[in-house]
Amino acid sequence: MNVAQQRQGRRDGQGALTPGPLFILVEPQLGENIGAVARAMLNFGLSRLRLVNPRDGWPNPAAIAMASGASPVVDSARVLDTTDAAIGDCNYVLATTARPREMLTPVLSPRAAAEEMKVRIERGETCAVLFGGERAGLSNEDAARADAIISIPVNPAFASLNLAQAALVVSYEWALADGRASFPSDLDEEAPAPKSDLEGFITHLFSALDEAGYFFPQEKRSVKERNLRVALTRAGFTEGEIRTLRGVVKSLTRR
């Protein structure tokens, strides 16, 4: 994906979507939290959301308002009556919960979980992540329906994450597993200046420094020149930056 395509994806909110896991919120309470989850999902290229028996019904105006630009996620959300119905077409299900320690279900870190889902999705499987409601999280019965548990490494003394925070962590790790890179800055589009331009600037600078008496004593001149040349070359200045620096040197020598 080139720079223009990535920027277009930022503008329309959908240009960077790729196949990914679906998120299932089991008995969510506040519409604001559902909207916040939708935003977290779309931030990292996810769009499939399912709701199991949302307390305040659906559609929810508070969710729509909180979702802001993530309306594609909210608008396409599916509502189901039970967890079984929500995961019925899924091949691999993960549950975000810290409670059922007595269960023998495998426990994965968010990163390991994302990498596992990436492998499975690439071979055509449908993967889902279960999130419990705000008040009590997932029930043991719902957690037992999962193939594995996602355990987020939180502070044991303050381990409570809200719904959107947990969704954000999983979404972020999915983006990494999916190979999503940070957006390039404008500087990434400018190539370093030609070596001839850099050499012209270095010659100009050395001449000015020579007139100012910087290369003293004379026997240390070669070492000082070499150190400056290495530092200036390593900086990777663009053509525009070289012009600016030459203007600085010219201004100083004029004074």
Task: Describe the model.
- It is a single chain.
- Mean pLDDT is 88; it is low at 1-12.
- Helices cover 47% and strands 11% of the residues.
- The radius of gyration is 28 Å and the shape is elongated.
- 31% of the residues are buried.
- A 7-stranded parallel sheet has the order 3-2-1-6-4-7-5.
- The protein has 255 residues and is α/β, with parallel strands linked by helices.
- Helix 2 (31-43) links the parallel strand 1 (22-26) and strand 2.
- The longest helix is centred in the last third of the chain and has 17 residues, at 195-211.
- The protein is built from 11 helices and 7 strands.
How do the strands and helices of this protein lay out in sequence?
Blueprint: H1 3-12, E1 22-26, H2 31-43, E2 49-52, H3 61-67, H4 71-75, E3 78-80, H5 83-87, E4 92-96, E5 107-108, H6 110-122, E6 127-131, H7 140-143, E7 148-150, H8 163-177, H9 195-211, H10 221-234, H11 239-254
Parallel strand pairs: 1-2, 1-6, 2-3, 4-6, 4-7, 5-7
Helix pairs in contact: 2-3, 2-8, 6-8, 9-11
